[in-house]
Amino acid sequence: MDFTEIKELIELVSEKKLAEFEVEQGDFRLKIKRDAESSPVTTSSVTAAEKQVVEKVEKRATPAPVVVATKESKQPETKEPDNLHIVKTPIVGTFYRSPSPTSEPFVKKGDKIQVGKVLCIIEAMKLMNEIESDVSGEVVDIYVENASPVEYGQPLFGIRRG
Amino acid sequence: MDNSSTEIQIEEPIDKTSTHRFRNLVAQIVYFKEIDSTNSFLKQKAQKDAAEEGLCIVASRQTAGRGRMDRTWHSPEEGLYFSILLKPNLALNFVSLITLMAAVATAESVEAFSHSPVDIKWPNDIIIERRKVSGILTEATFEKQKLGYVVVGIGVNLNQKTFPKELASQATSLYLESGQVIDREAFLLYLISRIDHWYGVLLTAPSAIVQRWQQLSTYAYGKEIFVEIDAKKVAVKTSGVEASGALRVETADGKVHILYGGEVLEGR
């Protein structure tokens, strides 16, 4: 998750007046809390990079969300190799790797796929959205656990073009 | 569902076809006596780009009727099994309103024919007196971050006089509620006309879908329900529907959560 995405999330949390918001993505977990009283409270154990985000938050009009970043983001790299294509979710919802709990996943790591291959389902408000691959190649990474919530634009699959 | 499958379905004999022109949609209706699943059939057609918006598949019986997550949908001859193909040009944040739109159209149709007070359980189960009378399964495809086609499948319990034991306490039919045998075709055309109306609204003023949904559903405001938050069953009170169709709920400590999915559970 990059800074622009984090910033967007903070703005969303502010705008929607949410008390608390949490998103998990691979090894990265972000928790945003609104301090109802006044200015935001920052918590310990933030890295230098995360401090920038907190500072940005503090510049906002109060009350603003509190950012609590618990782990360092590991993947996917923002600088992706030229032949690595990241498939992101177009909508907010729940990520499913198979059509039903008992069936095989649509794709596994190492699968060679063609354009148009269904990779997963994102369910939102009982709308089952099949996400198709827009490139051909090999599935090299799956960034999200089955049945977990996903946010708009969150990376789902890494596909090496070929 | 599996795109890699190259199996070609042998088409069941078509019973009859008819075409009806509405304000927004031209409904080309294809009736089958029996089919595996109207949604599966329509998806196969749409995948081959062999289908226009407004194509409707209706079956008297489904041999493999599906609900969410491939759960079976009990599909005897007394019911209506119907799927319609839509290709809406919608902003991504409104895409999920398609299910609320279908629920509004179905609730209005069920109300008109059953003469009973109808409720919508978020987001799209049609309920009379706590029993399900209709279920909706909407399936869409996304390619290159853009919505492709949408198949809205609607199952309605029309003339069932009884239900299997395991469903009896949770299901009802229009016949059981109204005491009258419902003409399937008359109900179908009414339902399509409501879909046509609300589909037009969805494309031009999506917020009106949310407003109408909130009018029709007791789940919109102040309903005490249980939902899953962070894998825990939590008691919440509903506090309206977001512009996207997501459900806003509050926990006892006043925290607001926005739900995009998961089951809405009753009771304790």
Structural write-up:
The complex is a heterodimer of chains A (162) and B (268). Chain A contains two helices and eleven strands; from the N terminus they run H-E-E-H-E-E-E-E-E-E-E-E-E. The two termini of chain A are 26 Å apart. Chain A is globular and about 45 Å long. Chain A has helices spanning 3-15, 48-59, and strands at residues 20-25, 28-34, 65-69, 84-88, 93-96, 112-113, 118-124, 127-132, 137-142, 149-150, 155-161. A four-stranded antiparallel sheet of chain A has the order 4-11-9-6, with no helix packed on it. A four-stranded antiparallel sheet of chain A has the order 8-7-5-10, with no helix packed on it. Chain A folds into two domains: 3-58, no CATH class; 84-161, Beta Barrel (OB fold (Dihydrolipoamide Acetyltransferase, E2P)), CATH 2.40.50.100. Chain A has 162 residues and is an alpha+beta fold. Chain B has 268 residues and is α+β, with helices and mostly antiparallel strands. In chain B, strands 1-2-3-4-8-7-6-5 form an eight-stranded mixed sheet, with helices on both faces. In chain B, strands 9-10-11-12 form a four-stranded antiparallel sheet, with no helix packed on it. In chain B, helix 2 (97-114) packs across helix 6. The model of chain B is unreliable at 1-10 (pLDDT under 50). At the A-B interface, strand 5, strand 7 and strand 8 of A face helix 2, strand 7 and strand 8 of B.
Quaternary structure: heterodimer
Strand count of chain B: 12
Number of helices of chain A: 2
User: What class do helices, strands and sheet pairing of chain B give?
Assistant: alpha+beta
Q: How many alpha or pi helices of chain B? A: 6
CATH topology of the largest domain in chain A: OB fold (Dihydrolipoamide Acetyltransferase, E2P)
Gap between N and C termini of chain B, in Å?
35 Å
Low-confidence stretches of chain A: 36-74
SSE sequence of chain B, one letter per element:
EEHEEHEEEEHHHHEEEE
Q: From the coordinates shown, what is the CATH architecture of the largest domain in chain A?
A: Beta Barrel
| pLDDT < 50 stretches of chain B | 1-10
What is the CA-atom radius of gyration of chain A, in angstroms? 17 Å
